Amino acid sequence: MNKKKCFISIFFISFLLFILLSPIRIIGAIQATITSCVIFQAFTVIMLSRYYRIIKPWILFVAILFGSSIIDIPIRIRYFEYTTLSFPEFVGRIVSIIIGYLVFSNYSANRIQSGWSATILE
After folding, report:
1. Which of 19, 23, 59, 117 is the most interior residue, by most CB within 10 Å?
2. Closest by alpha carbon to 29, among 100, 98, 92, 99?
3. Cα–Cα distance for residue pair 5/1, rounded to 1 Å
4. Where are the bilayer-spanning segments (predicted)?
5. What whole-number distance in Å separates Cα of residue 48 and Cα of residue 61?
6. Do residues 14 and 67 lie in contact, with contact meaning Cβ atoms separated by under 8 Å?
């Protein structure tokens, strides 16, 4: 897989993940925030650990970040006062992607690929 195809596919996967998690907002803001934070952090770590050899991790980070917020950013800029109820979910998602990137960058790729049990036991 070449770099451009990898970037575009991760961008679209994170976009589709955002779309799939959107109906959870009907249940409640807190549930949507917790769910999207957990899923996007895990998604970020998994994608970075899988594709860091093909493309630089910070480029993958940008693809995930833009893919997950390509719809949110224009809407929040234009209609911010009407989107304040779901703003914590947006911030939580961005922070969880950043934390996923930091988790990946602080641990070696070998530890992440071998599983979480190795990092928990240390």
Report:
1. 59
2. 92
3. 7
4. 7-24, 30-51, 58-79, 85-104
5. 8
6. yes
Give me the DSSP letters along 58-122: HHHHHHHHHHHHTTHHHHHHHSGGGSSTTHHHHHHHHHHHHHHHHHHHHS-HHHHHH-HHHHHH-
Residue at token pair 């998602």: 93
44-48 mean pLDDT: 91
CA distance 99 to 26: 26
The pTM for the full model equals 0.82
Q: Where exactly are the structural domains of the chain?
A: 3-121
| pLDDT tens digits, one per residue of 71-119 | 989 998 999 888 888 888 899 999 999 999 998 888 754 565 555 544 4
Q: Which of 118, 98, 121 is nearest to 108 (CA)?
A: 118
